[in-house]
Amino acid sequence: MYIEDVKDQMNLPESVRIFDTTLRDGEQTPGVALTVDEKIGIARKLDKLGVDTIEAGFPAASPGEMNSIGRIVELDLDANTCGLARVLKEDIDAAIDCGVDYIHTFIGTSPLHRRYKLKMSPEEIIEKAVFGVEYAADHGLKVEFSAEDATRTEFDYLLDVYRAAEDAGADIINVPDTVGVMIPRAMNHMVSRLVDELKVPVSVHCHNDFGLAVANSLAAVEAGASQVHATINGLGERAGNAALEEVVMALITRYDLPLPVRTTELVSISEFVSRLTGVRMPPNKAIVGENAFAHEAGIHVHGVLEKAETYEPITPEMVGHKRRIVLGKHTGANALRSKLREYDIEMNEEQFCTLYEQVKRLGDKGKRITDADLRAMAVTILGKA
Ligand code: KIV
Ligand code: ZN
After folding, report:
1. Read out DSSP for 59-110?
2. Less CB within 10 Å around the terminal CB: N or C of the chain?
3. pLDDT value for 385
4. What ipTM, to 2 d.p.?
């Protein structure tokens, strides 16, 4: 309703490509290192999910990394397999040796990167960027170019860099919010200007340092960005990247954009990646968290049991999740009756009241009541009858 009111103020693209970087930026999550087989397992699941591009890693990082990227290329997936490279011959050669058909090449452009990291003049950086893009394009690769720390780069200079990359043969221009400093309105403004000025599609790569990665990615799409970088479970450097499951579900259900993603696979891939990386999701994580479709408060459970949409914005089935009715001090009689029905437990009114009181008493003590606890309590009450 309210979204429709503002849609005509947006410059939405016809569709949005999903560039998954779980195996590259996601693997840069502190403490995470995946084996070759684990990377292959995740790549297969990403392909089944239907992402457009899989950034499989950073080939120049190590021989092991080259090996795993090469093995992912051999899978001959439907998704493009991409490798990350600095704008250096040796990095691009390493990616070519892995057999990727798509390269994501980058160089820092902000004053901080120019002065402290690269120790290069603005002109030298443009020269290097042009070299990298041309070299990759001359080798027949699809080229995506990123100006690292774009969102802290002077706009006129950034545009010069991007125009030079475009003229050198870049197929896509990516805008990294490398340290997650943007806010949605500024991201929208910046991307609008870039979309107006550039001929090739514009993509965004948002970090989550202020918890705004998904919001900034969506603001960029509203401005015409037609590709979003994301990771499963929002993994990535520091506070991570935009969470793929959140971006995808927002684009499909809030913006009505047609994405060829099999959303019913989202919970399964989230759990798989969580198990392999050891990074557990908080229960209240949007879309895939244990509590994303769990209800405890009596009023909510009553509403959901009557009509799920009262307290659920989408169905759990849409993302491969399950609705859960949780018992605790907020539980209402309706919820308890529905649980008993679920387990085929029949009770008279007196027995039901005893059980209901026990649930409330335990809930008041802050106890979590599992379904197994409930069944045990019910059996005891029935046994006493
Ligand atoms: O966050 C970033 O700037 C990156 C680059 C490699 C694009 O991950
Ligand atoms: Zn990044």
Report:
1. GGG-HHHHHHHHHHHHT--SSEEEEEEESSHHHHHHHHHHT-SEEEEEEE-S
2. N
3. 63
4. 0.99
